[in-house]
Amino acid sequence: MSATPRRSALVALIVALPLGDALGTQTPSDPGPPTPAVRGTMETSSDANALTPVAFETTRRATRGFDRVDIAVPLRAGDAVLGANTDYFTARSMFQASDRHRRVAWFGVLGLSTFGPLDLALGWSTTSNANSPGLSDPARTLGDPTILAKGSFALTRALAAGASMQLGVPTSEDGTRLALDAFTLTSLAIASFAPTANAVVALNAGYRIDHSRKLFAVEPPVEIGSLIRFSAGVAKRDTAIVALGALYRVPVAEALRLSPYVELDGAFAPGAASRENPLRATLGATAVLGARGVFELTVAGAYRLRGAPVSDGTLPGLPPWELHAGFAIRMAAFGQSPAATSATGGASALPRCVTSASCPSGQSCLEGQCTLVKEVDKEVVREVVRPPPVFFLAGTVTSSADQRPVADATVKLSGFEGVVLASGKDGKWKSWPLPLDDGILKVSVTAAGFRPAEQMTPKGPANETKQLTLALTPTDKAVPSQLRVQLKDRATGKSVGGLVTIPSLGKKLPVAGTGTLETELPAGRYNLIVSSPHLQTQSKEITLVPGELVILNLDLGKSR
Question: Which terminus of the chain has fewer CB atoms gathered within 10 Å of its CB, N or C?
């Protein structure tokens, strides 16, 4: 029985869910018709945390992703992606000694972003398998069409999830019709995580209902060999599939962005020998060309880790290695002028840049900020939205007893009670950017084994760091009180000297002719006896509080 080898490829019409800036995609609004003369009005994107894209990498299915691994991000609104791909490998002794097998696959893809949370995709392919001496008629196909639907949902700014379903219909064994009963239906759950604007990690897991075994269903039943099973991609059982990929975007020049990626994909068929379950590693890179990312070129190499074709096997098997090349074009990008993103973030910081290559598609790097360009007639208008001024507070927490730094002290700022700063081993601390406005800040410091302390400080200056030194008093150290006594003659109003006696402490403290006495005393309650020559002696009772100053002014009259 002759067999016509075939190979299905994926093509996608994709209905894009507008996820904003999550995971490296933007959904630009319609900028409207361009004005006659191109000048330079600039509006600056306001969201520093949004993971804006620097590339639009697509899979071989025209969905957002790497090569075989999807990410949970849709195509940009209004985009149409047309792609052409090819796979190639050649190897010896795959099915019998000294045979030579060669495969060349060509497939085209069309992806469209339309409306709602879905992407749709269509694909068609032709595959040529040649094996000497076993297979010589390799290339009759009706395109092996596929259709795919994909939905994507942003969970956070960095995390997104989605799902896809793909239906593939192969060409019949005789090459004259589509074998509808030999369809494959692949369902995938998709999760992707973008820790930065330039890095993406994605995980795909799902199940493939595979009826390709019906492609050679004849009466009486005939068991096909491993060569035909491999060439036609026939599996006897359904499979569970999983794929993991990671990509990092590297801006190279104004109109060139390079995105190297690595993938690991495999499948598991119940009842199949473990050596049959395929596992493949892929290393490749995608180059995005043009300031708006209009053209995309992908080159990759795949290496089989497990899953070679075997006689009487369950799965078709993988080639030992394979080269892949692809080209895609964003057709909608030709008619789009760069869309401005309005400033909705209020006081949010602005995206910073060094060169325009590090900015999202359609933006330029001006004065260290990614800036969008809008078309204006005749005159140049330049508007740069700048962030409000900020300042920083920093300081050192020390012990008043020995001036040593205090580690693990808690620092709080008034107006930000929900945020706590902590000093390091060197007692140092520093705040986040604080808005600069009128008023003052109260800085409160606490630490184990020390009395709480507070300090008031004015805000500012702008874009500078104000240094504070905060001294804490240990709780196990007696804190003295301050006493100040001022003596005057009641009749003349002049200061006079004298003597202050504290019986409970056994102290007699002389008062100089200036009439002033300043001294430190332990906290407590005391009776003071104050006398001066030729003046009346007085007795006063005072209470001294730790760390506080008590001032005692006495006017002494003439003695009788």
Answer: C
